[in-house]
């Protein structure tokens, strides 16, 4: 008897946690997405599916922009993270943990503060652009802030460690003897990398992409701090709908639409990469 | 990847069953939420409500005060003096960035009848203020405990259209929304709203993200008085603002952070609150200028209000009334440089200027003579008021202007 109960008892705390703090709020939000009304007069559940079509047609620009920024930032993360992870894993030697710690060091500073510090760094007359403008290398009205580039760069910077760590873990596991074997079989350095190391590190890249693309697409801090009039992301819209307009139904509808789009995208991506089971790879 | 762990596969089937169970739970949740969420529209407060609320309330010796940034000096001088005189300590936080966000933050707690952690908060007249009163979230003030207000408040501030008879609120400060600019960057005097549309300042103009503020400026730019505007006027104003955005003239739609952007040089001219600019010049030594545009500026009132779940309402009311002593009002005017609701502060400032020497004398005299702290009748004539809106009108209004500020 006790033996049969044990697994259930073990899952109870976590299960309850999920049920109360994740499932229930999601259900409430789902029902909100089908309501109509306002804060003063109350909301009625009338299966108002129009919330979905209305919010998607009103904010399609921001939605597409978020996905594009998400893809660009994720791609930039892969390009920057792979060489760094590779170097730490194969050339790090005895200092591997120091390098990893350095990689994580920015996390000891608050997310918002890190982003704000970029604002000072990249200000129109700031320490980077100011001297360049004075030297006549840049036109006076040149600016980096308030552009899509600034937002994507900020996103890349803030989420880079999430990409480095899983790739590093995957590369660290590659047995160096495999490389020696490849060389014994007359593979050049490039061949060995392309046919041995790269395929073995794909699960790491996959997990890294999952861990960056989803939060990056829904991020709203970077667009707020570094963006301008045409860089608003869907996260900003949702935040605005919830907290400024108190339009809970539209906000909920938009959140669920975003979630659905991200899930579909991820499963399609998993298919394309040939991994049958998304969760399995993510768990590695 | 190729060899799939059989344990895991088994796990997957089990989790699929669990997923079905989750859907069952979800169904139950839907049932719970099915009845919708009730509105809490409240009837306007009557005299009996005032007594009912204040009966039996006592002084606790502490008050929590929520205010906007740059709305008091760093040393919190008036509050320290208040504590010295009354024995009531004050926790002061500048947590309010804009009204709708603040409303969004406190609304769930007020709805659940929980304390929001503050006993006194400053709310601008506008849609959020209207919502707070309509929902019965504000305490009706007990005027028998507010002798300073009765004696010293200016007549105009005792009968404001958004809260006639000061049932729920008294003004903390009044201010003007106009244009601030850095003359060194613009290279010329800025005098009119049209300057905000000048392609010469492409990418260097700041506008406000607050829909009421930006909507008002759009309307004034097309020659409409916001207080009497119609839905058609909003569309016209929206088109004018869209044009400004499409031409790349606007750098960003700002909250409170326009001041930093202005002093860093990211923007050269911007919609601005009068007092912010004076304070910035005073504290940072910057050389920004503020003007009320020819076409008009807006005047708004920031109000001291007590939320219905306040834990220390008596202490809050004492502090609220304290701000209406002419000497305190003069002190505050000197600090924040906004329009004070206490006309008597002018005499106090002039008297102090007469006593003072050196640079302080000059500062005080400037303040006492400043048309932006004690506006002239001609200035008042150029200033426009916010339009009062119903919730339905507000949704329509938001639809027009948020499309612009939402990028």
UniProtKB/TrEMBL annotation, chain A:
Which InterPro entries did the record assign? MetI-like, MetI-like_sf
Q: For this UniProt entry, which segments traverse the membrane?
A: 66-88, 100-122, 142-171, 192-214, 251-270
Q: Which SUPFAM superfamilies match?
A: MetI-like
Spell out the Pfam families in the cross-references: BPD_transp_1 (PF00528)
What region holds the ABC transmembrane type-1 domain? Answer: 63-269
Q: Topologically, how does it sit relative to the membrane?
A: Multi-pass membrane protein
Q: Which UniProt keywords apply?
A: Cell membrane, Membrane, Transmembrane, Transmembrane helix, Transport
Claim: Membrane is one of the keywords in the record:
yes
Instruction: Tell me if Zinc-finger is a UniProt keyword of this record.
Output: no
**Cell compartment(s), UniProt:** Cell membrane
- Name the PANTHER family for this protein: INNER MEMBRANE ABC TRANSPORTER PERMEASE PROTEIN YDCU-RELATED, INNER MEMBRANE ABC TRANSPORTER PERMEASE PROTEIN YDCU-RELATED-RELATED
Quote the protein name from its UniProt record. ABC transporter permease
Organism of this sequence:
Actinoallomurus spadix
UniProtKB/TrEMBL annotation, chain B:
- Which InterPro entries does the entry mention? SBP (IPR006059), Sperm_putr-bd (IPR001188), TAT_signal (IPR006311)
An example of a Pfam family matching this protein is SBP_bac_8
Q: Does the keyword Transport apply?
A: yes
Keywords linked to the UniProt accession? Periplasm, Signal, Transport
The answer on whether this UniProt entry bears the keyword Signal reads yes
Location(s) in or outside the cell? Periplasm
The UniProt entry lists the main location of this chain as periplasm
Under the heading PANTHER family, the entry gives: SPERMIDINE/PUTRESCINE-BINDING PERIPLASMIC PROTEIN (PTHR30222), SPERMIDINE_PUTRESCINE-BINDING PERIPLASMIC PROTEIN (PTHR30222:SF17)
Q: What is this protein called?
A: Spermidine/putrescine ABC transporter substrate-binding protein
Q: Which organism is it from?
A: Actinoallomurus spadix
């Amino acid at each position: 008897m006790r033996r049969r109960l044990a697994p259930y008892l073990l899952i109870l705390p976590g299960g309850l946690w999920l049920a109360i703090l994740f499932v229930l709020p999601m259900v409430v939000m789902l029902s909100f997405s089908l309501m109509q009304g306002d804060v003063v007069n109350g909301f009625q559940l009338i299966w108002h599916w129009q919330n979905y079509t209305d919010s998607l047609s009103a904010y399609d620009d921001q939605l597409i922009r978020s996905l594009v920024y998400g893809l660009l930032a994720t791609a930039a993360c892969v390009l920057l993270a792979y060489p760094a992870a590779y170097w730490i894993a194969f050339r790090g030697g005895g200092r591997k943990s120091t390098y990893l710690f350095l990689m994580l060091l920015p996390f000891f500073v608050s997310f918002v503060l890190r982003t704000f510090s970029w604002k000072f760094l990249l200000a129109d007359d700031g320490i980077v652009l100011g001297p360049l403008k004075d030297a006549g290398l840049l036109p006076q009205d040149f600016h980096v802030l308030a552009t899509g580039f600034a937002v994507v760069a900020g996103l890349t910077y803030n989420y880079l460690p999430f990409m480095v760590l899983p790739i590093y873990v995957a590369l660290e596991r590659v047995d160096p003897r495999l490389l020696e074997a490849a060389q014994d079989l007359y593979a050049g350095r490039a061949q060995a990398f392309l046919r041995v190391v790269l395929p073995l590190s794909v699960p790491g890249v996959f997990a890294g992409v999952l861990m960056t693309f989803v939060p990056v697409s829904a991020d709203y801090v970077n667009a707020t701090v570094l963006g301008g009039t045409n860089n608003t992301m869907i996260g900003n819209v949702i935040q605005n709908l919830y907290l400024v307009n108190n339009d809970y139904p539209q906000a909920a509808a938009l959140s669920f639409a975003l979630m659905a789009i991200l899930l579909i995208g991820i499963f399609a991506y998993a298919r394309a990469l040939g991994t049958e089971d998304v969760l399995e790879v993510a768990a590695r | 990847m190729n060899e799939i762990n059989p344990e895991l596969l088994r796990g997957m089937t089990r989790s699929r069953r669990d997923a079905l169970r989750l859907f069952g739970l979800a169904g139950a949740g839907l049932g719970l939420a099915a009845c919708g969420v009730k509105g809490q529209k409240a009837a306007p407060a009557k005299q009996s409500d005032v007594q009912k609320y204040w009966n039996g309330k006592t002084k606790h010796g502490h008050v929590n005060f929520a205010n906007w940034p740059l709305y008091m000096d760093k040393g919190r001088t008036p509050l320290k003096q208040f504590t010295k005189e009354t024995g009531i300590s004050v926790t002061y936080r500048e947590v309010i960035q804009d009204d709708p966000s603040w409303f969004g933050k406190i609304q769930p707690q007020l709805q659940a009848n929980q304390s929001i952690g503050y006993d006194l908060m400053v709310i601008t007249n506008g849609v959020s203020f209207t919502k707070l009163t309509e929902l019965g979230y504000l305490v009706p003030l007990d005027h028998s405990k507010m002798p300073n207000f009765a004696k010293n408040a200016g007549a105009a501030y005792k009968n404001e259209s958004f809260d006639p008879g000061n049932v729920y609120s008294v003004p903390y400060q009044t201010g003007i929304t106009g244009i601030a600019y850095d003359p060194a960057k613009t290279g010329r005097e800025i005098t009119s709203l049209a300057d905000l549309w000048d392609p010469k300042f492409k990418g260097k103009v700041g506008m406000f993200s607050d829909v009421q503020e930006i909507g008002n400026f759009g309307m004034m730019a097309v020659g409409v008085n916001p207080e009497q505007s119609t839905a058609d006027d909003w569309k016209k104003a929206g088109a004018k603002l869209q044009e400004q955005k499409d031409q790349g003239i606007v750098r960003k739609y700002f909250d409170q952070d326009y001041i930093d952007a202005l002093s860093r040089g990211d923007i050269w001219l911007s919609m601005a609150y009068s007092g912010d600019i004076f304070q910035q010049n005073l504290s940072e030594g910057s050389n920004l200028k503020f003007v009320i545009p020819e076409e008009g500026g807006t005047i708004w009132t920031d109000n001291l209000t007590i939320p219905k779940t306040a834990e220390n309402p008596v202490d809050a009311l004492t502090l609220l009334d304290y701000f209406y002593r002419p000497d305190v009002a003069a002190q505050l005017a000197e600090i924040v440089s906004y329009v004070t609701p206490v006309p008597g502060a002018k005499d106090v400032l002039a008297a102090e200027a007469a006593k003072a020497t050196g640079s302080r004398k000059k500062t005080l005299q400037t303040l006492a003579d400043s048309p932006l702290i004690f506006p002239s009748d001609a200035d008042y004539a150029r200033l426009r008021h916010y339009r009062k809106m119903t919730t339905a009108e507000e949704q329509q209004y938001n639809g027009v202007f948020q499309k612009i500020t939402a990028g």
